[in-house]
Amino acid sequence: MGAASNDDNEEHEFGEDQPTNIDASSSSNHDDASAQQPMTSNNSTKSSPSDSSVVFSPELLGMYYSRLFPYQMLYSWLSYDPATMNPKKSNSNTSTKNGTSNNSTTFPRREFSMTIEPTPGNEVYIRYQSFLSQEELTTAIQKRRPTKIDIGAVFNHPPKDNKSLPSGKLQTQERELVFDIDLTDYDAVRNCGCSGAKICPKCWTFMGMAMEVMDEGLKNDFGFVHVAWFYSGRRGVHCWVCDDGARKLTNEARSAVATYFEVNLGSDKNKNFHLSSPLHPMLTRAYDILEPRFVESVLPEEGHGLLSTRASWTKLLMTLPEQANSVAAKLEEKWGSKKNFTTPEEKWEELKSALSAFIGKTGSSKAQKNMSNADRARVENWPIETVFKYVYPRLDINVSKMQNHLLKSPFCVHPKTGRVCVPIEVANFSNFDPFQVPTLGQLMKELDDFEAAGKSDDGTDVTFDWQKTSLKEPFEKFQKSFLVPLLNEERRMQREEREKRAAAMGDF
Q1: Angle, CA 99 vertex, CA 94 and CA 105 arms, to 5°
Q2: Ranges of H-type helices in 103-165
Q3: How confident is the model at residue 119 (pLDDT cuts 50, 70, 90)?
Q4: Is 23 a catalytic residue?
């Protein structure tokens, strides 16, 4: 056992087994002295009268794990077993007979880790957990009631056996390609008053822009199809790329993919950065995606006010390359006139046009004399660099580089907010409000209200208790748009592999 990491940390990296962590070899089959007692069966557990103003408590967390956590969905996903796709109607979260399968060879070799609190304020981190079945996973979670669950790689042996294996024999085999984007990395450009863990609707838009750029690049440039996005429960988003090819990537290949998206945005010591010319097509596409959103969300007063006041536009004009000082002076004078009523969007367009004219890019003007090609490129790229400085994705790149990273499990609950890590659709990000994601208290009230109204007896098709709450929409969309296509692809690949083996053996 070891002290748990800070609640705000969304991911972990591990190499070989460390003596500070407990031996988890018996975790899935035996009692743990420090674990919570197991919950009773779903069929007999009722939610207590709920106060929706209480966002998180050990009791609410236990109820969530007992009734609402989507064990079958998580098991089906991480098994990559098409046989698990269609559960029969049952509200049980513990049965392995309802749409689950024990035939998966992948799931038992998957590492889980758990952060538990045996006593209030005493966090214990347990890693190298693995489970043979959905039933074992369910039993362990309901018994321990972890405040955080992390998901790691698939190993060549069940991770729970790590202590019985010779040193160095436990090796990673595959792992989804994951990305972690956190608003704390945008603190230098958040002009909304937020910093650290604090977020607001103004700075939350940065997450949508990052998701769109990354999603386009992963699908168009690398050909990935099965890409899932999740709210982290507090101030960020996580991406899981689940294509077979992505899961099999080596550490070197993962690093190459992550580095492909990385742009040097400068640092606290060196705030200047310059893009090379000509611009890479990926960056050109990113600018085309980001610039309209930058204009809408960053420039105006109702956004981050980058061009909304004299002080703000003066500050921005001062970042122009030295060669364009004359452009800055003219616009400063013009915009400062009492007769000037241009909007931030109009100022941005005027600034770009003035720079284009300055370098002779427009047909009616000539470039300034004695301007080198490097200086010309610097002026030309300034609008792009400015947009990127504010809204280009800021990745925690180390999360993506190695198979042995663990990342917070989707569907768990953030203990600081009580909110569930729900799926997010990139195309519908504008309709996603992190402040409307249900808390544990709200979910228990929804469950109570549903059952008090007797809706379960009115013919409503309810397979799982989460379908009685506001989790129904995001969870079902995840199943339909991501999980079903993913497992259909796995079924096709398995069929092709069987046919290939049969052909090789002459067994037609």
Answers
A1: 90
A2: 134-144
A3: confident
A4: no
